[in-house]
Design goal:
Helix content is 36%, strand content 21%. By secondary structure, the protein is an alpha/beta fold. α4 links the parallel β1 and β2.
Length: 272
C-alpha cells in the first residue's frame, strides 16, 4: 500500500511526491487498512480524509466502492483534480465507484446500513462532541460491517487542546477552534465505544518504545522544513515500521509535547 501511495503522489508532481507520507501514517494507514478487510463486494465510507489519496488508492487496490466525505470547502475539487492525474482513479470516478462529498459526517445523504466498511483515521479527535458523528456512522453501517477508528492515544492524559482556527468544528471557547483531544483507556470506552452503540471487536495501541523519532526528527519544527523534507522524509516509510510498535498501556512513556505518533486503533462491529 505504501508503494501505491507514492505512485499516486508521483502523478501529482514533484512537490506532492516530496511531501511523502507523514511518518506516523506509514504505520497507521496500513494497520487501519488491514483491519478493514476490504473486498471487491464492500462499500467503504472514509470520513475526514481531506487531501489524502488513501480513498482513491483503496478503490484501486481492492475494487470496492468508496465514498470519501470531508467538510473542507474545496475537498471535492481538490480530490477530483488529483484523481484526474491518475487514469485508473479517474475511470473509477466516472463509473461512480469513487466519490468525493463535501459534507459534514454528522449528516450524510445515504440510507441506513448503506456501507459495509467505514474508516475514521485520525479525525474524531478534532470534534468536541463525537457522539452525533458516531451515531450517524452506526446508522450507515450495515449489519455485520465494521467501523475502524484511529485516534491519538496517551494513557496519562485527556485534555482537549485549542490550537488554531479550523473549518471542521465550532470552538468551545470564544474566538478559538477545537483542535485535538488525546484518548486514554477510560475515554476510549466512554466517548467512542459507548458513544457509537456498536460492539468493540478489537483495540490495539501503537507507539515508539525507544527513540522518539517523531518529535526529534520528523515533527521537529526547529529543523527547517526543507531539510526535513529532503533529507528525512524519504526515510519515513522505512523507519516507522521499525520504531513504531504495538504497545501495552504500561509501555507508553509520559510525554509533554502534543505531537506524537502514539495511536489507538479500534474495530467496532454491528450485529447481524
Amino acid at each position: 500500500m505504501i508503494l501505491d501511495y507514492y505512485r499516486y503522489l508521483a502523478r501529482q508532481g514533484p512537490i506532492a511526491l516530496s511531501k511523502g507520507i507523514p511518518y506516523a501514517r506509514c504505520v497507521e494507514y496500513p494497520e487501519v487498512v488491514r483491519r478493514l478487510e476490504l473486498s471487491v463486494d464492500d462499500t467503504l465510507l472514509d470520513i475526514g480524509s481531506r487531501y489524502s489519496p488513501l480513498p482513491a488508492i483503496l478503490a484501486m487496490r481492492h475494487g470496492c466502492g468508496v465514498v470519501a466525505a470531508d467538510p473542507e470547502p474545496d475537498f471535492e475539487k481538490r480530490q477530483a483534480a488529483m484523481a484526474r492525474r491518475v487514469p485508473e482513479a479517474w475511470r473509477l470516478v466516472q463509473a461512480g465507484r469513487l466519490r468525493f462529498l463535501t459534507r459534514d459526517a454528522k449528516d450524510l445523504p445515504f440510507p441506513d446500513a448503506y456501507f459495509t466498511r467505514i474508516s475514521a483515521i485520525s479525525v474524531l479527535e478534532h470534534i468536541p462532541d463525537e457522539t452525533p458523528v458516531l451515531r450517524e456512522l452506526a446508522r450507515l453501517l450495515a449489519p455485520g460491517g465494521r467501523l475502524v477508528i484511529s485516534v491519538p492515544y496517551d494513557p496519562y492524559r485527556d485534555e482537549p487542546k485549542y490550537y488554531r482556527r479550523s473549518v471542521y468544528v465550532s470552538g468551545e471557547r470564544p474566538q478559538e477552534e477545537f483542535y485535538q483531544r488525546y484518548y486514554n483507556d477510560r475515554n476510549l470506552q466512554e466517548r467512542l465505544v459507548a458513544g457509537s452503540g456498536l460492539r468493540l471487536s478489537s483495540r490495539e495501541t501503537f507507539g515508539e518504545p525507544w527513540l522518539n523519532a517523531h518529535n526529534l526528527i520528523f515533527g521537529n519544527t526547529r529543523i527547517p522544513w526543507f531539510i526535513r523534507r529532503i533529507f528525512f522524509q524519504p526515510w519515513a516509510p522505512l523507519l516507522a515500521p521499525l520504531l513504531i510498535r504495538r504497545l501495552e498501556t504500561g509501555q507508553f512513556r509520559r510525554k509533554t509535547k502534543m505531537y506524537t505518533c502514539d495511536v489507538a486503533i479500534l474495530v467496532l462491529t454491528k450485529g447481524a
